[in-house]
Amino acid sequence: MRAQFVLSEIGVGLRRNLTMTFAVIVSVALSLALFGGSLLMSDQVNTMKGYWYDKVNVSVFLCNKSDAESDPNCAKGAVTDDQKKQIKTDLDKMGVVEKVAYESQDAAYKHYKEQFGDSPLASSLTPDQMQESYRIKLKDPQKYQVIATAFDGRDGVQSVQDQKGILDNLFGLLNGMNWAARAVMALMLVVALMLIVNTVRVSAFSRRRETGIMRLVGASGFYIQAPFIMEAAVAGLIGGTLACGFLLVARYFIIDHGLALSEKLNLINFIGWDAVLTKLPLILATSLLMPAVAAFFALRKYLKV
Fold first, then answer.
1. What gap in Å lies between CA 254 and CA 296, rounded to an integer?
2. CB 156 within 8 A of CB 84
3. What is the pTM of this model?
């Protein structure tokens, strides 16, 4: 097969169907940009999980005098010194516990004032209404249920709370957004494949006399199909390159500059450039193979003489 002939046929095909070729490039670029974006979103969620779950605390809140009057869990009265000592001893003995910190009522009141000092309720609260607590750092944040089982309903314990539950709601929302992006991506991929198939069919139909003559003089099927397949692959590769550019520009302007989220949201550990760069080869490979395979199957019928 002469490479010069194949290359010339690719150029002719792309120019003949310029509008549809442009549509293929745009649809492939958008669908693969969404594909790469969904992969990066998954990486971001996993990075945030690793960062925040490592900082998760389990809190064992102790009964105070106010709870003894209103909370069924504290029906036996406020926590005693002996009960506090026993709870602390039992926590220290547990293998899942890495560190235990005690927070007094005064410290809890101070923290509340720092966080919610502007709320109307803050002015009516007093330190004795706050709860003492043990803040527990776990070796494995997934082991929260071990603490809950051991201390829920125990004398002097008002409740056991896991901050991981709050984070799970956030990550559930992010995962939902990620799946929505994947659904849109799948729709765009279907549109791109349909455009590729139609473009190849139109190109094959417009050159049916040429391909018929080539078949009659003994040209092989692959020799005839190669220009059409490579036209689709070239258009797809251009779209894939644009998709890579979109991801690089988005990472640059959203996280580093422009919106500069890395500076404005210091509490979030954003993915680095390495996460973006590792996705680019996959996007380029997909942009090359997906149109080529679609074109191959589309041509099996339309190049029969």
1. 39
2. yes
3. 0.65
